[in-house]
Structures are given as C-alpha cells and as structure tokens.
Fold this sequence. Notes:
By secondary structure, the chain is of the alpha+beta class. 18% of the residues lie in helices and 35% in strands.
Amino acid sequence: MRSFDTVTEAINDLRSRGFNVDFNIAFDKLLCIQNNMCLNPSEFEIVEIYRFEGETNPSDEDVVYAVESKDGFLKGAVTSAYGMYADSMSTEMIRKMSISK
Length: 101
C-alpha cells in the first residue's frame, strides 16, 4: 500500500489515478455534489484507506477513503475525521466505513 505524509498528497495521488469525484458523508449515504448523485452503502466499495494521526492536535486526525461505485461509474475520495470530530453516520455507514482490506 502507498504511504503519504498529508491528506492533500493522498487525495492528489488518488485523483491522478482516476478517483476524481468528491464525496461527502451524508449520515446514511455518500453524496456527490458535482453531479447530485448519492451512493448507499450497498452501492459502493472502499478500495483504499489512508489514516492520518494528529500528532499535536486531535483535530488533525483524518481518514481518506478511495471509493468506487459497484457499477464502476463513479470513483472518488471522501475524507472523514475520527474520534470526537467524526462525522455523524448511520450504523450501516459506520460498518461500511470501518471495513479495511
């Protein structure tokens, strides 16, 4: 697996490999602002995960997920803080985002 020092490096690398959609977590789905599409947990796979530890500030803790729709049409990235700064998610989304390969 690749290794990055910053979230920006990880996102730029993913974009260079075709993960061009910016997703946001919207409680029980991933929302794509660019084309107003949503993916439910059953409609996407997490293909890569990069976790960043905040050495001096807990608000710097972040995870970058490379996401691909099961139909192969959408490939993109979503970032999420963890710990007390984590996004609010449904139980199904928490399970999906907790899976690592």
